[in-house]
Design goal:
This protein is mainly alpha-helical. The protein is built from four helices and no strands.
């Protein structure tokens, strides 16, 4: 697996989806911005991301090309949702940095 192609984009998309949903959920429940959430629990966040990366790498290393479609879940939908989550998470960070407070 190289640094380009479906593998890295899929893994980054999964991390972005997890990060965006977790950040918005925690922000709604606590009112704290993303970077403050990260500062309070860096080990748990890193450990969760490491588990997602490991869980995503195993099928790729075994040769699974991730071409199965199960109902509404397809590889193209996962890539689209991952890209949207990447943009959403980056936007959340930028807006919080500009405003100097939690967005929600």
């Amino acid at each position: 697996m190289a640094f380009s192609g479906i593998g890295p984009e899929t893994i980054n998309g999964r991390l972005a989806m997890l990060g965006f949903v977790a950040a918005v959920g925690a922000e709604l429940s606590t009112g704290e911005p993303v970077l403050q959430q990260w500062a309070q629990e860096p080990f748990l966040i890193f450990a969760t991301f490491a588990l997602i990366i490991a869980g995503s790498l195993v099928p790729f290393l075994q040769g699974n090309k991730n071409k199965e479609t199960v109902g509404p879940w397809s590889p193209s939908a996962e890539l689209l949702n991952g890209r949207a989550a990447m943009i959403g998470f980056a936007s959340l960070l930028i807006l919080e940095a500009v405003n100097g407070r939690a967005l929600l």
